[in-house]
UniProtKB/TrEMBL annotation:
Interacts with MinD and FtsZ. Residues 15-84 form the Septum formation inhibitor MinC N-terminal domain. Keywords: Cell cycle, Cell division, Septation. HAMAP family: MinC (MF_00267). The keyword Cell membrane does not apply. Belongs to the MinC family. This is Probable septum site-determining protein MinC. It comes from the Bacteria. Cell division inhibitor that blocks the formation of polar Z ring septums. Rapidly oscillates between the poles of the cell to destabilize FtsZ filaments that have formed before they mature into polar Z rings. Prevents FtsZ polymerization. GO terms for biological process: cell morphogenesis; division septum assembly; regulation of cell division; regulation of cell septum assembly. InterPro entries: CAP/MinC_C, MinC, MinC_C_sf, MinC_N, Septum_form_inhib_MinC_C. Residues 154-253 form the Septum formation inhibitor MinC C-terminal domain.
Length: 255
C-alpha cells in the first residue's frame, strides 16, 4: 500500500505561482464585434497576443449573458487567436455560469467582493471636500510595513523570465531583455535598458508609474491600460522616460 502511495505522489507535483495573463473586459454582448476587435490587436502585435491566455470579464455588462452567448464569446476569442482559460470573479450568478461552462473563476481580476448575503461590495466613493476636511490626518506608516518596501532585482532579466513585485514597487538594476516581463502592483523603476514588457499597477493602482533610463520596450501597461510598440517613436526611443496615466490615456514622457 505504501509503495502505491509513493508511486502516486511522485507522478506529479503541484505548485502555485504568478502567471502572466490578459483580461478581456467585455463591454458589448456581441461576439462578432469582440472577435473583430481582438483580431485587430493580435494582428498589430502577434508576438504578444497570439495564443496568449486570457480571462473573460463580464462584470461591465448590465446583464449577465446566457450560456449560449458566453459560448459564442469564448469561440470569438479563440477565432481571434487567443486562448480563453476562465471567467473573472463576479457574483453568485457568474460562479454558477462558470460551473455550467466548466470554466474556472480567476480571482486575480475581481474588482468587488461578494458578501455572504449575495450583495457586492463596491469601491468606496471619493471623499467630498467636507468629509476630507473633517477626517483626521493619516499617520505615517512604519517603515517596514508590507507594501512600502521595494523589491530589488540586480542584473539582467532574461528573455522569457518574469519578475513580479506583489504589493510593492519593483526596482531593476539592469537590462530587461526582449520577451522578458517585469510586473509590480506599485511602480516600476528600470535602471538600464527596457526592451521587454513592463506592467505597473497590476492590481489596478492608477497612480503607479514606470520609470526607465533607456526606453526600447515592447509593451508598457499601467492598471490595465497599455501601449504596444512595433517601432518606437524617435522622441522616446533610447531616452529616459516616465509612463503615467492621464485618465484613460497612457502617457510616455521624456525625463
Amino acid at each position: 500500500m505504501n509503495a502505491v502511495n509513493t508511486s502516486l505522489e511522485s507522478a506529479c507535483d503541484l505548485r502555485f505561482g504568478q502567471v502572466g495573463m490578459a483580461c478581456v473586459r467585455v463591454r458589448q454582448a456581441d461576439a462578432a464585434a469582440i472577435c473583430e476587435e481582438l483580431e485587430r490587436r493580435v494582428q498589430a502585435a502577434p508576438q504578444l497576443f497570439l495564443r496568449t491566455a486570457v480571462v473573460l470579464d463580464l462584470s461591465h455588462l448590465s446583464d449577465l449573458p446566457d450560456d449560449g452567448m458566453v459560448d459564442a464569446m469564448l469561440e470569438a476569442v479563440r477565432t481571434a487567436g487567443m486562448l480563453p482559460v476562465g471567467l473573472a470573479y463576479g457574483t453568485k450568478e457568474t460562479e454558477a455560469l462558470a460551473e455550467r461552462m466548466h470554466l474556472p473563476l480567476i480571482a486575480k481580476f475581481r474588482s468587488a467582493y461578494e458578501r455572504a448575503d449575495g450583495s457586492v461590495t463596491a469601491a468606496a466613493p471619493a471623499p467630498t471636500a467636507a468629509s476630507a476636511a473633517a477626517a483626521p490626518a493619516p499617520q505615517p506608516a512604519a517603515a517596514d510595513t508590507l507594501g512600502l518596501r521595494s523589491q530589488y532585482h540586480d542584473g539582467q532579466v532574461r528573455s522569457g523570465q518574469q519578475i513580479y513585485a506583489r504589493e510593492r514597487d519593483l526596482v531593476v538594476n539592469g537590462v530587461v531583455a526582449n520577451a522578458a516581463e517585469v510586473i509590480a502592483d506599485g511602480s516600476i523603476h528600470v535602471y538600464g535598458t527596457l526592451r521587454g514588457r513592463a506592467l505597473a499597477g497590476a492590481q489596478g493602482d492608477e497612480d503607479a508609474r514606470i520609470f526607465c533610463s533607456d526606453f526600447r520596450a515592447e509593451l508598457v501597461s499601467i492598471a490595465g491600460q497599455y501601449r504596444v510598440f512595433e517601432q518606437l517613436p524617435a522622441d522616446i526611443a533610447g531616452k529616459a522616460v516616465q509612463c503615467r496615466l492621464d485618465g484613460d490615456k497612457l502617457l510616455i514622457e521624456p525625463l
